[in-house]
Amino acid sequence: MLFVIDHHSGVPSYRQIMDQIKFQIASGALAANAELPSTRALSAKLSLNQMTISKAYSLLERDGVLERRRGQTLVVRALAEGALTITKIDQLRQSLVAGASAARQLGIPPGEALRVFRDMLNEPKDTRIHELPHRHQAAH
User: Fold this and answer.
1) Which of 32, 41, 31, 58 is nearest to 3 (CA)?
2) C-alpha–C-alpha distance, residues 73 and 48, integer Å
3) Contact (CB, 8 A) for 34 and 40
4) In angstroms, rounded to a whole number, what is the distance separating the alpha carbons of residues 117 and 129?
5) CA R_g for the chain
6) 13-30 mean pLDDT
7) Are 3 and 20 spatial neighbours (Cβ–Cβ below 8 Å)?
8) Structural domain for 63, as ranges
9) What gap in Å lies between CA 9 and CA 31, rounded to an integer?
10) What is the pLDDT of residues 65-96, one digit of tens each?
11) Is CB count within 10 Å lower at the N or C end of the chain?
Protein backbone atom coordinates (compact mmCIF):
# COMPACT_ATOMS: atom_id res chain seq x y z
CA MET A 1 0.00 0.00 0.00
CA LEU A 2 1.48 3.30 -1.09
CA PHE A 3 0.65 6.68 0.44
CA VAL A 4 2.01 10.02 -0.66
CA ILE A 5 1.48 12.99 1.64
CA ASP A 6 1.85 16.46 0.15
CA HIS A 7 2.48 18.81 3.05
CA HIS A 8 2.12 21.83 0.74
CA SER A 9 -1.26 20.98 -0.80
CA GLY A 10 -3.39 22.71 1.81
CA VAL A 11 -5.29 19.44 2.31
CA PRO A 12 -4.92 18.02 5.84
CA SER A 13 -2.80 14.88 6.04
CA TYR A 14 -5.65 12.82 7.54
CA ARG A 15 -7.85 13.80 4.56
CA GLN A 16 -5.13 12.82 2.09
CA ILE A 17 -4.89 9.41 3.76
CA MET A 18 -8.66 8.97 3.64
CA ASP A 19 -8.85 9.97 -0.02
CA GLN A 20 -5.99 7.65 -0.98
CA ILE A 21 -7.52 4.69 0.87
CA LYS A 22 -10.88 5.30 -0.83
CA PHE A 23 -9.18 5.57 -4.21
CA GLN A 24 -7.20 2.36 -3.66
CA ILE A 25 -10.41 0.54 -2.72
CA ALA A 26 -12.27 1.88 -5.76
CA SER A 27 -9.40 0.95 -8.09
CA GLY A 28 -9.14 -2.57 -6.66
CA ALA A 29 -5.64 -2.02 -5.24
CA LEU A 30 -7.13 -2.61 -1.77
CA ALA A 31 -9.53 -5.56 -1.77
CA ALA A 32 -12.31 -6.31 0.68
CA ASN A 33 -11.00 -7.75 3.96
CA ALA A 34 -7.47 -6.45 3.31
CA GLU A 35 -5.74 -5.49 6.55
CA LEU A 36 -4.51 -1.94 6.94
CA PRO A 37 -1.24 -1.12 8.64
CA SER A 38 -1.46 -0.24 12.32
CA THR A 39 -1.59 3.44 13.23
CA ARG A 40 1.89 3.09 14.73
CA ALA A 41 3.37 1.45 11.63
CA LEU A 42 1.77 3.90 9.19
CA SER A 43 2.65 6.96 11.27
CA ALA A 44 6.29 5.83 11.36
CA LYS A 45 6.33 5.15 7.62
CA LEU A 46 4.81 8.55 6.76
CA SER A 47 6.51 10.50 9.57
CA LEU A 48 3.14 11.65 10.88
CA ASN A 49 1.62 11.78 14.34
CA GLN A 50 -0.28 8.61 15.28
CA MET A 51 -3.35 10.75 16.03
CA THR A 52 -3.42 11.85 12.36
CA ILE A 53 -3.60 8.23 11.21
CA SER A 54 -6.10 7.39 13.94
CA LYS A 55 -8.36 10.26 12.84
CA ALA A 56 -8.31 9.10 9.22
CA TYR A 57 -9.04 5.50 10.21
CA SER A 58 -11.83 6.50 12.62
CA LEU A 59 -13.56 8.64 10.01
CA LEU A 60 -13.30 5.86 7.42
CA GLU A 61 -14.71 3.43 9.97
CA ARG A 62 -17.56 5.84 10.71
CA ASP A 63 -18.25 6.14 6.96
CA GLY A 64 -18.46 2.34 6.63
CA VAL A 65 -15.31 2.05 4.50
CA LEU A 66 -13.29 0.19 7.15
CA GLU A 67 -14.27 -2.12 9.99
CA ARG A 68 -12.56 -3.52 13.08
CA ARG A 69 -12.15 -7.23 13.44
CA ARG A 70 -11.50 -9.34 16.49
CA GLY A 71 -8.15 -8.34 17.95
CA GLN A 72 -8.69 -4.74 16.73
CA THR A 73 -7.39 -5.42 13.22
CA LEU A 74 -8.69 -2.80 10.80
CA VAL A 75 -9.79 -4.14 7.42
CA VAL A 76 -11.47 -2.91 4.26
CA ARG A 77 -15.19 -3.47 4.57
CA ALA A 78 -16.75 -5.58 1.82
CA LEU A 79 -19.04 -3.49 -0.38
CA ALA A 80 -21.94 -4.64 -2.50
CA GLU A 81 -21.24 -4.29 -6.24
CA GLY A 82 -23.63 -1.32 -6.49
CA ALA A 83 -21.90 0.47 -3.63
CA LEU A 84 -18.50 -0.18 -5.21
CA THR A 85 -19.71 1.33 -8.50
CA ILE A 86 -20.92 4.41 -6.63
CA THR A 87 -17.54 4.64 -4.89
CA LYS A 88 -15.75 4.48 -8.23
CA ILE A 89 -17.96 7.20 -9.69
CA ASP A 90 -17.39 9.38 -6.61
CA GLN A 91 -13.62 8.97 -7.02
CA LEU A 92 -13.84 9.87 -10.71
CA ARG A 93 -16.00 12.90 -9.93
CA GLN A 94 -13.49 14.07 -7.33
CA SER A 95 -10.65 13.68 -9.84
CA LEU A 96 -12.51 15.69 -12.48
CA VAL A 97 -13.31 18.72 -10.28
CA ALA A 98 -10.06 20.50 -11.18
CA GLY A 99 -10.50 19.76 -14.90
CA ALA A 100 -14.09 21.02 -14.94
CA SER A 101 -13.04 24.16 -13.12
CA ALA A 102 -10.19 24.72 -15.58
CA ALA A 103 -12.53 24.25 -18.57
CA ARG A 104 -14.94 26.87 -17.16
CA GLN A 105 -12.14 29.32 -16.38
CA LEU A 106 -10.64 28.88 -19.84
CA GLY A 107 -14.04 29.37 -21.48
CA ILE A 108 -14.02 25.94 -23.13
CA PRO A 109 -17.59 24.98 -24.09
CA PRO A 110 -18.93 21.83 -22.39
CA GLY A 111 -19.15 19.93 -25.68
CA GLU A 112 -15.49 20.60 -26.45
CA ALA A 113 -14.44 19.63 -22.91
CA LEU A 114 -16.38 16.36 -23.27
CA ARG A 115 -14.70 15.68 -26.61
CA VAL A 116 -11.27 16.16 -25.00
CA PHE A 117 -12.24 13.83 -22.15
CA ARG A 118 -13.54 11.17 -24.56
CA ASP A 119 -10.34 11.43 -26.59
CA MET A 120 -8.27 11.01 -23.42
CA LEU A 121 -10.27 7.93 -22.42
CA ASN A 122 -9.51 6.34 -25.78
CA GLU A 123 -5.76 7.08 -25.70
CA PRO A 124 -3.30 4.35 -24.77
CA LYS A 125 -2.25 4.48 -21.10
CA ASP A 126 1.25 5.72 -21.88
CA THR A 127 0.16 8.66 -24.05
CA ARG A 128 1.15 12.07 -22.75
CA ILE A 129 -1.11 15.13 -22.70
CA HIS A 130 -1.32 16.65 -26.15
CA GLU A 131 -1.72 20.27 -27.08
CA LEU A 132 -5.34 21.21 -27.66
CA PRO A 133 -6.25 22.81 -31.00
CA HIS A 134 -6.94 26.53 -30.85
CA ARG A 135 -10.64 27.37 -30.96
CA HIS A 136 -10.40 29.36 -34.19
CA GLN A 137 -8.51 26.48 -35.87
CA ALA A 138 -11.21 23.97 -34.93
CA ALA A 139 -13.81 25.98 -36.89
CA HIS A 140 -11.88 25.66 -40.20
Assistant:
1) 41
2) 20
3) no
4) 11
5) 19
6) 91
7) yes
8) 13-76
9) 28
10) 999 988 878 999 987 666 667 777 887 888 88
11) C
- The residue with greater pLDDT, 28 or 140, is 28
Q: How far apart are CA 76 and CA 78, in angstroms?
A: 6
Domain count, the chain: 2
Contact 20, 81 (CB under 8 A): no
Q: Which of 40, 53, 44, 45 is nearest to 13 (CA)?
A: 53
CATH number at residue 69: 1.10.10.10
Residues 59 and 105 both lie in one domain: no
Inter-axis angle of helices 13-27 and 39-46, nearest 10: 110
Q: What is the mean pLDDT of residues 101-130?
A: 83
